[in-house]
Structures are given as C-alpha cells and as structure tokens.
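Problem 3 from the worked examples.
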Amino acid sequence: MRKLALDDEILLNIEKPARYIGGEVNSVMKDKDKVDIRFAMCFPDVYEIGMSHLGIQILYDMFNRREDTWCERVYSPWMDLDKILREKNIPLFALESQDPVRNFDFLGITIQFEMCYTNILQILDLSQIPLHASDRTEEDPFVIGGGPCTYNPEPLAEFFDIFYIGEGETVYDELLDAYREWKKTGGSRKDFLRQAAQIEGLYVPQFYNVTYHEDGTIESFLPNDPSAPERIRKQVVMEVTDAPYPMKPVVPFIKATQDRVVLEIQRG
C-alpha cells in the first residue's frame, strides 16, 4: 500500500493538500522494482498551473507507454509546504509513488518562461540535489531541461546536466534506451553524458566552453570534449499527426488554472 510522504498533521495544516497526494484519475502506478528507469517530470510551478500544461501530459503518457520506464510528476510546493519541508527536512517527492525525487534516475524540468527560473532552484534545493551540475555525483539523478526557454539555455547552464533543444517527442526514446544500456555496463556519470551529447538535439553544457562579449552576448561557443558536436540542432515534429497524444489525461482532484480539455490541432 502506498504511503503518503506527508502525514495527516501536515496535510490538515496546509492550503489545498490535494496538490500533494497524487492518486488522480488516470495517474499511472507501476511496480518500481520492475522498471529499469524512473523519471520525475517536473513543472516548476504550483500544481494547478502544472496540471494545465499539455506538454507534461504528452510526455507523461509517452514515457509510461514504455514497460521499462515509470514517469511520475513533480510540482513546486506552495510557500506553506515549502517552509514545512525545510523545517522538517522532508525531501521533495513525486506524486505517484511519494518517493523522494533524489532517488530517481532523471529529473526532467520543463522551462516554459523565465519567471520560473527561481522555482527551478527551489525544486533542486528541496529535492536535496546539488544545485550545480558539477557538484553532482553518481548518486544524483540526471537533471534535464526542456521547453521553449532552452533556445537560450546559457542563463541556466550550470544547473543542468542536459538540455533538450526542440520538441520533446522526437529523441527521448533514444536517450532512455541509451541510459538503460549504460546502466547495465556500470559506466561513470560522465560516460553517460558523453553518450547523451551524441544524440541529436541534446546539449550537455559541461562539454562546451562559452565566452562572452562585454555586453553579455556570446562571443564563442566551442566543444571541449570529442563527443560533443560543434552545433546542436533543434528537434521539430514535422507532422503533428505522428506525435503521441494522451488518450487518458490525468484528471486533477482540484480545479486547474486552465480547467478544460486541450486539443492540439497544429504547431508552429
């Protein structure tokens, strides 16, 4: 039986406790001992805003179609729970299993707008994952950034292991397949990042040296590792009818900010 990360005393003393308990209609439960990859998918804002976002629903459904992968959801806690998590040293957790995010293989964060940048640091801090990618060890999840703001990833480059440039449906399966094989071999963290850097559309910041002009614009962008390509090409879904779409979207217990069904008819 699933045990909630927060006890009744906490849940009864915070605003909208349904934000944190999971178990919604169409949420996906799997046996964590029977999957090879655990992926925490994060929208760095409160639950009601994150549940309004179609992109998370698409990737959540796509990943969970894989038998070897369990994708779970993570959102930024409201200020009341943020304070409690820090005071009681409770690590941030995923909704489905209620397990700490730091125990996952990947933490994927969608970066939809610049105003959420500080929330990203909040997520990492509450998850007890080192803020800087250079400080992470073999015990930490790989932190991936995706979404529209990754077209200018440099302001956040030191906090992410990998950036996904472009639309997320195109090569994530290739990344997960590479991770599963790397996990079997027992290679180092850097070994996997080198494999990831060779997948088209993935940017691994630690494998590049970036210099700037005095006005803050980029002067040069050069790879410092043989595995890293000189140019990263954004990934585009050329035919939207070929893109995955959730047949059973997760239905929240509480009203979402955009309380509606979303139908995607075109992109671009």
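Problem 4, a separate protein:
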Amino acid sequence: MPLVRPELRRRARLIPHPPVQLRATRWLTSHGQTLFPIPRREGVELIRHGRTLVFRPRNPKGALLWLHGGGHIIGHPAQDGPLCANTAAEVGVTVVAPRYPLSPAHPFPAGLDAALETWAWMHTRADEFGEPFAIGGESAGGGLAAAACQRLYDEHGPLPRAQWLFCPMLDDRPTADRRRDLPRDRPVANNAQTRYAWASYLGQAPGLETVPEYAVPARRADLSGLPPAWLSTGDIELFYEEICAYTRRLRDAGVPAQLEIVEGAPHAIELWAFDVPVVKAMLASARAWLGEQL
C-alpha cells in the first residue's frame, strides 16, 4: 500500500473486504449492536428509541441527525458509536442516529424516506434534543444527508442549519467504468463493491442516463439554496474526485462549502483511525466547524 500514509498502513491492511453480495455478510454487518459495542462518554446519555440511538449531552445547544455508512447495503448506527459519542460531548449537541432500511431488500427511496421521518420526529422533541438542527453522515449516509437537504429544500421543509458530510457517496456514474475496478486491493472500498451497492440501491445499473430524483445527489442540476456544507475526503479514496466536484459545484452555486482533504488517506478514516493524529486533527476541525454553525 505505497500510497497510504505510513501511520495508516497497518490498520488499512487489517480491514476486511467482505463479499457484500452475500446475504450472510449483509446480515452480519447490519446487526452492529453486538459487533460494535457502543462506548460510553462521561456527560453523554445514551438513549434507545426503537431502532434509533440518541447520544444526548447535558444542556445540548442543538442536534445532529447522523446517518451511518455502508453503501446503502450494510451498516448499523452502532458502528459510529465513538464518533457520535465524542461529537455529542465535544460539540455539545444531541446526536440522533437511526437504523434505516437497507438495499437490496429496501431500495431507494426507503432509506431517504426513513431519514426524513427521523428528521420530522426530531422536530417534535426539540425541547429535549436542543435546537438548531444539522444533518450529517458518512459514506452512503453522507450521500443520504446531501439528498435529504435537496428534498427538504424543494418541499419547503425545515432546512438544517448545516450539512456535515464525511467521505460522502454522491455519484453513481464513476462506478460504471470497470477500468476503475483495478487495483482490486484498494483499501476499505473498491469500485466493484460500490457498483454493486449503487445497483442494489437504485434498482438499476449505475451510470444510466436517468435515475430517480434525489437518489444520486451529484445528479442534481441546481445546488443553490442548500445549507452550508463541510465535506471530507482522502486523496487516494474512491470518492475523491466526486467529492471535490460536488464541493466546487456547491461553491459555484453560492453555498458556503469547506473541504478537508487528508493526504494519503483511504475511505472512512474517521471510523477506523479516529485516534491517529492526522485524523484527530481532521475531526477537531470538523467539530469546530459544526459548532460554529449551531
């Protein structure tokens, strides 16, 4: 892994590449409350509301709807337990992390609909969770968060104060290029896996001329009017180009957008390398930005 920065190489080698096409793999990685024990953070109360985890600090100054990653096909909010608990403690916001329906059993728009149902539910508990609200997510969850902002804008719903997008999965079209399947040992996420994920979510091959509205955030023609955005990416990860392009388009549309690029970083470092100094610095910057918006 010559391109991976030295302090991340050992961990990157240890990350498995499960065959996500197998039903057993999807089942195992989507039952995360046993696979991912949730850490406790002093001053943060962990509350379970059905399929939703709530991380509530004392005297919250706002709330964040957080959507986990996993390519729309695997994942569980518990996998983001450290990120959610630490964000609640350090930013002083309630973090609401739902378990949304996954593909291929529940293709688009099931996950987005569930996210927006949670968003509406949060507004009924503003006195408990704190205001104002932001929305964020990681990988596929970051894509869902971006899509939710687009739909809320069009439907004149309550817009979030900010969108907080870690290595978001934004565009189906690059995965259609099978030349990107090499190298197959790309750390964390590769093109073949992502192509399967998009096909499962969309119910059609990725890269076709048309897709359902709000299914693919990067396909939206007009990004004006959306909330301020913070985005992150590693410069060797699969989504690097699409994240940079989306950031440029947000700025061109008049949306304040901050992009953090970590040199030599693969996908999702905020989850598996959060205690490495370069990642800690990125997370500190992300949380400072979020705190300024709320």
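Solution to problem 4. The longest strand covers residues 44-49. The longest helix spans residues 277-293.
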